[in-house]
Amino acid sequence: MNAPASVRDVDAGLRAAGYLPGESTALVSFLASRLGKPVLVEGPAGVGKTELAKALARYLDRTLVRLQCYEGLDEAKALYEWNYRKQLLRIQAEAAGTGWDAVQDDIFGEEFLLPRPLMNAIASPEPVVLLIDEIDKTDQEFEAMLLELLSDFQISIPELGRIEARTHPVVLLTSNNSRELTEALKRRCLYLWLDYPSAEHELEIVRLHTPELPEAVAAKLVEVIALVRELDLKKPPSIAESIDWARALLLLGADEIDEDVFRSTMSIIVKHRTDLDVVSERVGVRLGLAARSS
Amino acid sequence: MTLPARIVDFGEALRAEGVAVGTSELLDAFAALGEVPWRERGPFREALAATLAKSPDDRRVFDLVFDRFFFRAVEEQAVRREVRESEGADGDGITGGEQIDLDNLREQAIQAIRDGDESAMRDLARLAIAAFGRRGEGSGVLGVDVQRIRRALDLRTDGPRQDGSEPLTREQIRRFEQQLRRELERGQIERTGKLPPARPLNELDRALPSGPLQDLAAVHRVVMQLKRRLATQGHETRGRRAKAHVDVRRTMRASLQTGGVPVELRYKPRRPRRPELYVLCDVSTSVTSASVFFLSVLHALHDSFRKMRSFVFVERISEVTDVFTRERNFKAVSEAIGRDAGVADVSGYTDYGRVWREFLQMVSDDLHPRATVIVLGDARTNGRDPRADVFAQVAARAGRTFWLNPEPQLYWNYGDSVVRAYAPFCELHECWTTKQLEDFVKALARPAHA
After folding, report:
1. Which of A291, B143, B162, B251 has its CA at 20 to 30 Å from residue B17's CA atom?
2. What is the C-alpha radius of gyration for chain A, rounded to an integer number of angstroms?
3. Which long-range contacts (CB under 8 A, 24 or more apart) does B235-242 make?
4. SS3 of B257, please?
5. Beta carbons of A190 and B253 less than 8 Å apart
6. Lowest-pLDDT range, A69-73, A244-248, B163-167, B405-409?
7. ipTM field
8. Are the C-beta atoms of residues B386 and B413 closer than 8 Å to each other?
């Protein structure tokens, strides 16, 4: 098992795990593993929030336990649930004449508990990386329920008592900022804002994921992506889209990004019909002009 | 002053700027500093940021306050210990003698600004200040000097440069100006030997740099919240159990407590009824600055609500629901509205009385207690009769009525503003930023007065 000793270790480790962290990303990840505090990661979609958790898990050599949040998610699906079918069977199988106390003791044991992701993360004998993805999609009530888990790493089950963490998980919460999270939750977390990377950083990322793509094409790609991001779009392309595009170009064997290549592949990076119009008008023409003048 | 005291002070400075820094955050900050090489500027700053600033807005304020606070802290120490750097620096290469070539300086500055090289920018800022100081053009006022130097260096955002390279962006120039200002301030502190009083950040610095797109996205986000609030409101008072369906699974689960006998019935939650929305938007000239914002609110509302009718008005009222359902593109919508507004606009002066009368005629049969009416307007009647009585009829038929006013509260009821006349019949909110729109959505959660 790895325990990072310095920020530089984390930086190198994440790189080895196939993730290029920015300065603050490495630092906050390091703090998270040292202080044992959850990290709230926010930023636009597709800048590598979820990927960070996966890379951390690979680097720390821990299992990744993932809880995908959605509207209406409740404790029964996130924490634990009583396996009531089994409980019913147990009651029926009970020989007549057994005292109530005995039955009650029996059916509220760990044997009848169905653990869900959060419970799994807490009860695991090996430390894990717990990813609570898109926490902003849940209701405020669920957020409140998380507080106990995030600050004390324990879960209270009325029938059983308190279950405390055997090991200390590294917890990451991601949010697309679609709603303001409560102060109480933020207070318990370290905060990391992931934004679109700088051009050099993005080039590095693209090169890491598609090493076979010629350097010149990759550089051009990053440049075009930066151009597209400056336009008024509903959904600007993120790093995920850059990588997808790089892969597509590699498959097509493109050795230059000119107007034609751009027009035929731009649906990879732009995903709204109105955005497509804007982009083809502004960027496509620009590429065409550049080709003609050179 | 020791480091812990300094950081507590820093927390105070953040609080003064409205960042919620609690004791637990400060404790976290200390714990974090214990783990990182805090003598380096980068980790020190990031560790504090991760523990103290917990939203993009907070982070923005944090960066500004961090720069200001530690700049002042250093200068304060320098004054106290009477450290002066000009003596050492004047002789060596930094000021580069008397004959600084202006063109050369300009090219270097542009290069540094383009590269975003902080330390080079700082050096060049000092060179520039030194050069202009000698020309005796200093006015003694920081802001004026910064602009003079920028102009003399010919740093501009517009127009292609002589060498045909990309023009600088405003943000890049702003950063260079920041360096200039800081160096000028440093010089001033050195000369006078004392610190100027700390000023709070101004609103312009504090706001995130945002384009119309980001604003649009922010408005959309707030409207999503609005939708949720409107969908669930009013349910507390109506009979919850009237037509509830039994949830078999949860009833079975509950029956375990009673040995498998379903004593306690559990019900499926009721699906919230879709709210109906009537939005009236003022597009007259007196609200020109706000109307783009209002139209984006309308646009976002149309994205979220099916049962919604929208109207624009100036002197008369005109329904634009079709425009929004037909066009998905914001730009196309605002153009179409611009044409439609022409229909509503006869003299260019808002006539609220006439608008209410026409509105009531158009929708009186459809208005009912589940409907919500939202008015976006400044309530400036140009001296005409506000006809609050007709507005009262509208409000009485609708379930809830809101009025969002794009003017700062300070200006309400001055001049021809008649907000007061309408106030008894609706819930009034000041609203010209997404922040205030968000506050409005929060206010929605509170139960209606009626």
Report:
1. B143
2. 24
3. B235/B270, B235/B272, B236/B447, B240/B270, B241/B267
4. helix
5. no
6. B163-167
7. 0.80
8. no
Buried b (16+ CB within 10 A) or exposed e, A89-108: ebbeeeeeeeeeeeeeeebb
pLDDT at A57: 93
Q: Which of A6, A7, A183 to mutate to test the interface with B (most CBs of B within 10 A)?
A: A7
Cβ of A178 within 8 Å of Cβ of B221? The answer is yes
Pair B368, B397: CB distance under 8 Å: yes
How many whole angstroms separate alpha carbon B65 and alpha carbon B55?
A: 15
Torsion of CA B32, B36, B42, B44, to 10 degrees: 40
Which residues make beta-bridge pairs with A183? Answer: none
Average pLDDT (A184-199) is 88
Candidate from B35, B43, B49 with C-beta closest to A35: B35
Q: How far apart are CA A142 and CA B338, in angstroms?
A: 44
**Chain A contacts of B36, Cβ < 8 Å?**
7, 27, 30-31
- Give CA–CA dist B49/A221, Å, rounded: 32
d(CA B192, CA B79): 9
Q: Mark out the alpha helices in A124-236 (DSSP H runs).
A: 140-152, 183-187, 199-209, 215-230
Q: Which residues of A touch B (CB under 8 A)?
A: 6-7, 23-24, 27-28, 30-31, 34-35, 37, 40, 42, 82, 84, 87-88, 91, 107, 177-180, 183, 186-187, 189-193, 232-234, 273-274
Judging contacts by C-beta atoms under 8 Å, the chain A residues touching residue B59 are 191, 193
Distances (CA, A) of A220 to A30, A91, A172, A202, A213: 34, 69, 34, 12, 11
**A-chain residues near B53 (CB < 8 A):** 191
Instruction: Provide the token pair at B111.
Output: 């290069």
> Measured between CA atoms, how close is B374 to chain A, in angstroms?
22
Select the residue from A6, A191, A229, A293 to test the B interface by mutation, using most B Cβ atoms within 10 A.
Answer: A191
Each residue's pLDDT expressed in tens, for chain B with a length of 450 residues: 688 888 899 999 888 887 888 898 999 999 998 888 878 888 888 899 999 988 887 888 888 888 888 888 887 777 777 766 554 444 334 444 445 566 777 777 777 777 767 777 777 777 777 777 666 555 666 677 777 777 777 776 655 455 555 666 667 777 777 777 777 777 777 676 666 666 555 544 444 444 444 566 667 777 776 766 666 554 444 444 556 788 888 888 888 888 888 888 888 776 655 667 888 888 776 666 666 777 777 777 777 677 788 888 888 888 888 877 777 666 677 777 776 655 556 666 778 888 888 888 888 778 877 788 888 888 888 778 888 888 888 888 888 888 888 877 777 887 788 888 888 888 888 877 777 777 777 776 555 443
- Shortest CA gap B411–chain A (Å): 30
Contact call for residues A177 and A195 (beta carbons, < 8 A):
no
Tens-digit pLDDT profile for residues A93-134: 776 666 777 777 777 877 888 888 888 888 888 889 999 998
Locus of tokens 């717990």: A130
Dist. CA B343–CA B301, nearest whole Å: 23
A23: chain B residues, CB-CB within 8 Å: 42, 46
Cβ separation B260–A91 shorter than 8 A: yes
Cβ-nearest to A274 among B256, B260, B328: B328
Angle subtended at Cα A158 by Cα A154 and Cα A162, rounded to the nearest 5 degrees:
25
